[in-house]
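[recover] target loaded
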């Protein structure tokens, strides 16, 4: 009776949000459904080219061959934690390839059995779905992110892109401004933004009022306020000065609606959002998917590569004004939320993106290693063959010399 070869373990860690929305997502279940979906679709694709084309678009180009090769060789294990649940020790020179040892605390509200206990994992891939830097000093876990950067573990998005492109507003704006400088304001219509390192400078605003002031690194509409007069700006400055944060300001634009351009792997979508107030990202009244225009594709493709570090998951927010002009407001990465319209498909696409990264980092590496071993073996055989041929030549030469000597003696 034949037995199947034992699979090697392959561990994926998902770092999710410490919020009500994030806590309800069971990523172990999402990865399981993504795997089953691949199996079900593979049966349909054999005789239906339309399904095959749509599947390539939705699954970030992950081929059936690569997926089944990965499933056959590795046993996938998915763990899930918040930033404040984990501690990281980095061992980049570990001989077994375990670059980091991550200790995970048990969750207060576990979603599955594995989350009920403390555990230690050595992940081969990390999906980052939350920022390590939050509203208060208690939610500052940048040391954990630095541990991921130190270890070099493959991440989606990469740990370096989270550090450079997502943690601080000046980094993001600087990256977007470089794109505008290269492409021009018509091709990349980025909104003007002003920066104040101290609250005492906030009264000097180049643009007209009203202004939209954003405090420090906050996102998702937090730490953002519409200021109508210079007096209000000075009052706000006295509040900002309590914690010593930096701030930025932008001209307030009366928009009809905003756009969210979403990129997950190579799949790009555009959503139109209309809100009850000017903060449409916090209180969207309606949301609908609209056609992807070439300029929107260009915006998000460029933004996903800003500061020289590529982001697998990226969103660009833009505002459409009453006169039809469009302004790019900001770009986000791994922590980007997904609209309820496409929530299920987006999460499955993120899982497929992780499968592709596992193929790129482990399956192809193993395949290349096997080819290298085959090449080395063939090279050694060729060397041995050359040695044998040289010895044969020497033997024939010796035998020929011996025959000549005997002839002379006779």
């Amino acid at each position: 009776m034949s037995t199947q070869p034992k699979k090697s373990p392959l561990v994926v860690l998902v770092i999710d949000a410490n919020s009500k929305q994030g806590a309800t997502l069971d990523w172990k279940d999402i990865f399981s459904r993504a795997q089953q979906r691949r199996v079900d679709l593979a049966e349909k694709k054999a005789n239906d080219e339309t399904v095959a084309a749509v599947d390539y678009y939705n699954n970030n180009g992950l081929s059936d061959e690569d997926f089944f090769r990965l499933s056959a060789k590795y046993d996938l294990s998915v763990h899930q934690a918040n930033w404040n649940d984990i501690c990281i020790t980095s061992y980049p020179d570990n001989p077994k390839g375990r670059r980091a040892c991550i200790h995970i605390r048990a969750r207060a509200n576990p979603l599955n059995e594995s989350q009920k206990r403390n555990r230690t994992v050595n992940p081969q891939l990390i999906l980052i779905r939350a920022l390590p830097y939050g509203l208060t000093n208690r939610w500052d876990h940048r040391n954990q992110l630095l541990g991921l950067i130190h270890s070099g573990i493959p991440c989606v998005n990469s740990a370096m892109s989270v550090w450079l492109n997502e943690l601080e507003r000046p980094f993001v704006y600087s990256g977007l401004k470089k794109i505008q400088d290269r492409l021009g304001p018509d091709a990349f219509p980025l909104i003007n933004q002003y920066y104040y390192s101290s609250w005492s400078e906030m009264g000097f605003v180049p643009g007209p009022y009203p202004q939209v002031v954003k405090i420090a690194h906050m996102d998702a509409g937090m730490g953002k306020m519409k200021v109508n007069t210079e007096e209000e700006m000075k009052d706000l400055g006295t509040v900002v000065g309590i914690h010593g944060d930096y701030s930025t300001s932008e001209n307030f634009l009366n928009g009809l609606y905003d756009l969210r351009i979403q990129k997950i792997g190579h799949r790009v979508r555009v959503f139109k959002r209309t809100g009850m107030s000017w903060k449409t990202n916090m209180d969207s009244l309606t949301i609908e998917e609209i056609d992807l225009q070439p300029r929107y594709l260009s915006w998000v493709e460029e933004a996903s590569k800003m500061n020289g570090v590529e982001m697998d998951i990226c969103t660009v927010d833009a505002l459409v004004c009453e006169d039809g002009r469009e302004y790019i407001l900001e770009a986000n990465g791994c922590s980007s939320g997904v609209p309820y319209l496409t929530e299920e498909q987006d999460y499955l696409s993120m899982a497929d993106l992780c499968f592709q990264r596992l193929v790129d980092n482990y399956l192809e590496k193993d395949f290349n290693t096997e080819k290298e071993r085959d090449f080395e073996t063939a090279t050694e055989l060729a060397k041995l063959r050359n040695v044998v041929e040289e010895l044969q030549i020497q033997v024939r030469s010796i035998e020929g010399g011996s025959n000549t000597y005997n002839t002379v003696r006779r």
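[recover] notes: DSSP finds ten helices and 16 strands in the chain.
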